[in-house]
Amino acid sequence: MLNFLDAPKSLTLASLEVGQHFYWHLGGLKVHGQVFMTTWFVMAVLLIAGFLASRNPQQIPKGIQNLMEYALEFVRDLAKNQLGEKDYRPWVPFIGTLFLFIFVCNWSGALIPWKLIQLPEGELAAPTNDINTTVALSLLVSIAYFYAGFKKRGLGYFGKYIEPTPVLLPIAILEDFTKPLSLSFRLFGNILADELVVGVLVLLVPLIVPLPVMLLGLFTSAIQALVFATLAGAYIHEAIEGHGEEHEEHA
To answer: What are the GO MF terms of this UniProt record (predicted)?
Structure first.
């Protein structure tokens, strides 16, 4: 059952509920406790992995250092492909953080038996299984590409809203709203659907059938992290270059 909260005492970016939730009351705020716990777990995993990989670096990497260096090379190539040789370096940390955070979040929902941990209400799941998490990540992307465009092009960045004609101004503004919406709902919908399908199959056929679906879920979870990071890079590149500079390059 889907329930949109409209309580004036709660402050959330988006309030879409599936089932029950375990809430924390922090002053006048009501937050999803299970989302905070799993998010902290993911951040701890990434911080520990980064610490272990960098505490004693070797010229010939192995183990966790080799894994993290491979992840860095992958993210660097991803950012370079989307932003180009001259603009990608400052954005590697941002795009890399998005990719690794979403990747570990998604895989935590597929690999860790969160449901074995009992809560007073609700149950633990991947942080990206909650619409508030995906909306927050999408808003970060929106802030990033506005910042990138304004930093690179100054007030000229806003000229994109009236190019090639001011008649397109409403469509250009609407496009800025649809970008974070599409990012957030794509990620949320795919992760939620995968967990629901696996949960139903485990109840119906608990032995063999869920295994290939779980493997497919791992693959799609990785793809969703890649898609999110790729689109973030593409949006930032679009803000940096702008329509006018693209036309000049082609001319």
So the answer is: proton-transporting ATP synthase activity, rotational mechanism
**Helix or strand run (H / E) with residue 151:** helix 131-153
Q: What is the DSSP letter of 31?
A: E
CA dihedral 8, 14, 16, 22 (to 10 degrees): -70
Q: How far is CA 28 from CA 24, 80, 89, in A?
A: 10, 44, 41
pLDDT digits (tens, 9 = 90+) for 84-105: 888 889 999 999 999 999 999 9
Average pLDDT taken over every residue of the chain? 78
Structural tokens at position 213? 């679906």
Tokens 């995968």, residue?
A: 194
The pairs formed by 63-71 with CB atoms below 8 angstroms and a separation of 24 or more are 71/96, 71/100
According to DSSP, the residues that pair with 108 across neighbouring strands are none
Question: Which tokens sit at 141?
Answer: 């992307």
